[in-house]
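Q: Given only this backbone (245 positions), what sequence would you predict?
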């Protein structure tokens, strides 16, 4: 949790002002936060579905049974949402933005790759980790919000380019005319060259290829909430009224 101040940390995104409500500083805490978010979002989805089923119920008995489930779901959702607000300053009733500050990257190892690792490398702190029987090797740590944003944008770019190659290959396999085949083949080769070049840049920058699977663990993140106009005015007023030191 971030400490409370008269003037909270502020950022602006897409013309919207946001205030810092929480800083989550460990991998375990970030994993727990995401799990908790998933729980309350899932409960909200269940509540929405139950309301629809109540409206479509054919008998009073069915409607009553569904209403009882809805009441129980809403009670649990309200309780969990209140706990999230107390712990993180998070509420489903508000819009939020998560800024990733520090992220660790791991790549899965084959049995052969793991066997080639030296005993010294295997015992280094956080050098490897095992999840569901799969061994992962540490490859990079991305620090600062800007670098994390760039990394995620690059991941999305490479994934989009890779998917485009798959589509071009499928179209090329189905093409019958020589002219169509030639155009598709030229586009495929150009797209493949761009993807390879971009991936090589990622290898230089982060030490691994995005053509492989990878595991991303958030070590530090900041949670911001979007402010209403009234809250913006109040915050600005408090900041202006604060005595100068």
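A: Predicted residues:
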């Amino acid at each position: 949790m971030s400490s409370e101040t008269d003037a909270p940390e502020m950022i602006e995104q897409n013309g919207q002002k946001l205030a810092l409500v929480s800083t989550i500083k460990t991998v375990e805490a970030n994993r727990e936060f995401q799990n908790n978010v998933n729980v309350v979002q899932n409960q909200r989805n269940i509540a929405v579905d139950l309301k629809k089923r109540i409206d479509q119920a054919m008998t009073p008995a069915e409607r009553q049974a569904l209403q009882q489930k809805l009441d129980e779901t809403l009670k649990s959702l309200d309780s969990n949402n209140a706990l999230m607000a107390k712990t993180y300053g998070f509420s489903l009733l508000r819009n939020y933005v998560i800024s990733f500050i520090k992220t660790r990257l791991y790549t899965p190892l084959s049995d052969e790759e793991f066997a080639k690792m030296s005993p010294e490398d295997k015992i280094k702190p956080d050098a490897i980790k095992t999840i569901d029987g799969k061994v992962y090797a540490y490859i990079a740590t991305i620090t600062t919000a800007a670098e994390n944003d760039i990394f995620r944008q690059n991941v999305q770019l490479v994934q989009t380019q890779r998917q485009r190659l798959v589509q071009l290959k499928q179209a090329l396999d189905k093409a019958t005319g020589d002219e169509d085949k030639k155009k598709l083949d030229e586009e495929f080769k150009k797209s493949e060259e761009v993807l390879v070049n971009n991936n090589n840049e990622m290898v230089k920058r982060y030490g691994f290829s995005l053509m492989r699977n990878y595991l991303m663990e958030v070590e530090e993140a900041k949670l911001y909430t979007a402010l209403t106009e009234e809250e913006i005015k109040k915050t600005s007023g408090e900041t202006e009224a604060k005595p100068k030191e």
